[in-house]
Design goal:
Elements: E1 4-13, E2 16-26, E3 31-35, H1 42-50, E4 57-62, E5 65-66, E6 77-80, H2 92-102, H3 107-120, H4 136-148, E7 154-158, H5 166-183, E8 186-191, H6 194-200, E9 203-208, E10 211-216, H7 218-223, H8 228-233, E11 238-246, E12 251-254, E13 257-260, E14 272-277, E15 292-303, E16 307-313, E17 318-324, E18 337-342, E19 348-350
The structure holds adenosine-5'-triphosphate (ATP).
Organism: Allorhizobium taibaishanense
Pfam families: ABC_tran, TOBE_2
GO cellular component, one term: ATP-binding cassette (ABC) transporter complex
Length: 352
């Protein structure tokens, strides 16, 4: 049985429904990210799991127990917020001890648990500091230790990295993931940063206007987006509107070129389909394999360090493609004709 389940969850604020029939089963020890733009309902779902918000309808259950009617402090959940939210007048030690003191744990137990937590986040040497004497990244690690100290059954992280600068964000997300794995704690992480979600999660829920557009592993979400929204939100995919020219042979027109795809399109001749193409999928190399060829003129080419991103004009339709930077290759020049080869499965038809 799944550990954390959300069944037919709905949420309205007054007349406005912000979560629509949300369903999900999360396994024990899984790391799940809710990914989506501002206002899509990620935080509201997290707050309903925590008990800060009631559900308008549906059931949230943890370890087989319906959480309806339970107050936040009765749910045994740890939470970390975007703003560090440490108690400014308490030392690091007292911040981490807070939940254990509230639970009236014996002094010796509190002492050893806090020490254990501070070791886990590599801040055992700063136990006597106050929050104002620490960096943002250190404060957020203390917030994590404080959330984990009472041994919660679920950890909820609401954009915990977004107030930090880019470098710390990457190192702290790796640290969070490593600690989460070490403890085996079921974790739900909210973010609007697709790279963060792709790098840290077992599974990602891509949220769109109060609904889950797609739930899947990072590679499923990136390589096989099911909707136009997922394709456009995750990664820098090309989204191309193409016309069905021969439904019987799955043939579509991209720019001025005819292309036959692998799977049935489910559309009639003359209808439009959206095709998603990853920029790194096509290759201009002589040796590249692929049944599908698309030829265009180079409209622009940008050196981005490890890759060169080039825009091709396929007769009115633009297509970006990436090549790894290699001292042996010369970047395409504007106006040059380039033929890219693709495997049939690289062209993904997505729902609108
Ligand atoms: P963000 O990343 O900006 O926090 P989000 O995806 O987490 O966005 P939510 O905070 O869950 O989005 O908000 C979803 C919708 O619900 C928004 O339209 C928001 O304005 C609305 N909303 C959230 N809380 C309340 C509230 N207490 N009263 C009324 N509307 C609310």
């Amino acid at each position: 049985m799944s550990f954390l389940t959300l069944t037919h969850i709905k949420k309205s604020f007054g007349p406005i429904q912000v979560v629509h029939d949300f369903n999900m089963s999360i396994e024990k020890g899984e790391f799940i990210s809710f990914l989506g733009p501002s206002g899509c309902g990620k935080t509201t779902i997290l707050r309903m799991i925590a008990g800060f918000e009631t559900t308008t309808d549906g059931v949230i259950s943890i370890a087989g127990k319906d959480q309806n009617g339970l107050k936040p402090n009765q749910r045994n959940i740890g939470m970390v917020f975007q703003a560090y939210a440490l108690f400014p007048n308490m030392t690091v030690f007292d911040n981490v001890a807070f939940g254990l003191k509230i639970a009236k744990k014996p002094k010796a137990e509190i002492e050893s648990r806090v020490k254990e937590m501070l070791k886990l986040i590599h801040l055992d040497h700063l136990a006597d500091r106050y929050p104002y004497q620490m960096s943002g990244g250190q404060q957020q690690r203390v917030a994590l230790a404080r959330a984990l100290a009472p041994k919660p059954q679920v950890l909820l992280l609401d954009e915990p990295l977004s107030a930090l600068d880019a470098k710390i964000r990457v190192s702290l997300r790796e640290e969070i993931r490593q600690i989460q794995r070490q403890l085996g704690i079921t974790t739900v992480f909210v973010t609007h940063d697709q790279e963060e979600a792709l790098s840290i999660s077992d599974r990602i829920v891509v949220m769109n206007a109060g609904r889950a557009d797609q739930i899947g592993s990072p590679s499923e979400i990136y390589n096989h987006p099911q909707t136009r929204f997922v394709a456009s939100f995750v990664g820098t995919l090309n989204l191309i509107d193409a016309k069905v020219t021969d439904a019987a042979s799955n043939t579509i027109q991209i720019g001025d070129q005819q292309v036959s795809l692998k799977k049935p399109l489910g559309k009639a001749n003359g209808e439009t389909v959206t095709v998603a193409l990853r920029p790194e999928a096509g290759s201009p190399a002589e040796s590249a394999k692929g049944d599908i060829r698309l030829t265009g003129k180079v409209a622009s080419s940008h050196f981005l360090g490890s890759i060169i991103r080039t825009k091709l004009d396929l007769g009115g339709t633009m297509l970006s493609f990436d090549m790894f930077n290699d001292p042996g290759i010369s970047p395409p020049t504007i106006g040059e004709a380039v033929t890219l080869k693709f495997a049939k499965e690289d062209l993904m038809v997505v729902a609108d």
